[in-house]
Amino acid sequence: MSNEVLVALITGGFALMGTWITVWTGNKRIMAELEKNEALQDERIAALSKKVEKHNNVVERLYIAEGKIDLLMKKGS
User: Which of 7, 44, 51, 56 fits a 20 to 30 Å CA distance from 21?
Assistant: First the structure.
């Protein structure tokens, strides 16, 4: 095997290794960022769910109150 071929193979191997390391570290960083964003979204969804639950509770209570008002209005007539 000639020196040129050996140098080309070694250079190609190092280039391939460098590319693999770059892709691996980039993927690792992106996955960590995605996990952080997912946790933040879970917190936001939980907060919104609580707000919706409160709103629904108010709507139900208002519906009951309106029914009672209607009964009182009918009795007063």
Answer: 7
